[in-house]
Amino acid sequence: MRNRTLAIIKPDAVSKNVIGEIVSMITQAGFKISGMKLIKISRQQAGVFYEIHKDRPFYEELLDYMSSGPIVPIAIEKENAVEDYRKLIGATDPQKAAEGTVRKLYGQSLAFNAVHGSDSDENAAIETAFFFSHSELVDNIR
Ligand code: CMP
User: Fold this and answer.
1) Is-contact 113 92, C-beta < 8 A?
2) Atom number, ligand 1, closest to the C-alpha of residue 50
3) Which of 40, 84, 95, 122 is buried deepest, with most CB atoms within 10 A?
């Protein structure tokens, strides 16, 4: 089934100037873009987005990082989007990510890992709605 997931190019990758390279990997893998923007979020907004991790030891560092510079949220669509995008980006820790994956190529550490991807269809819908209103999304799903 064709569905949607949320990708985010994180501040470390934006500052490395590899937005184009990562978007190209996403589209080459067969995803259609239905929404994309370059924005900076506040620490408080980052806290809401990552609330699921609020009890984890890395939470404060994660909020500092995600609010440290511009990010690029991208709503993308494809058959099996959540799983296929997670394969494209590789393991959370770039050192453990497979060769050729986005995190292997552009991530620098477990914390600064270049990109985010939703982990389920349910979270993809919640996370996409966090960054995009309904009218900001092009519907490629037919
Ligand atoms: P992401 O896929 O966006 O989901 C949560 C983020 O928290 C993760 O990518 C990393 O940026 C960060 N993260 C996950 N685990 C750790 C960890 N053990 N130490 C530091 N940061 C982490």
Assistant:
1) yes
2) 5
3) 84
Catalytic-role residue among 76, 116, 128, 132? 116
Q: Count the residues in the chain.
A: 142
Walk along the chain (142 residues) in steps of 10 and give the mean pLDDT of each run.
94 98 98 98 98 97 98 98 98 98 98 98 97 92 60
pLDDT at 40: 98
By alpha-carbon position, which residue is closest to atom 11 of ligand 1? 111
Task: Return the number of other C-beta atoms located less than 10 Å from residue 81's C-beta.
Answer: 26
- For the chain, domains (ranges, CATH) are 2-136 (3.30.70.141)
In the block, tokens 């550490």 appear at 109
| Distance of alpha carbon 127 from alpha carbon 132, whole angstroms | 9
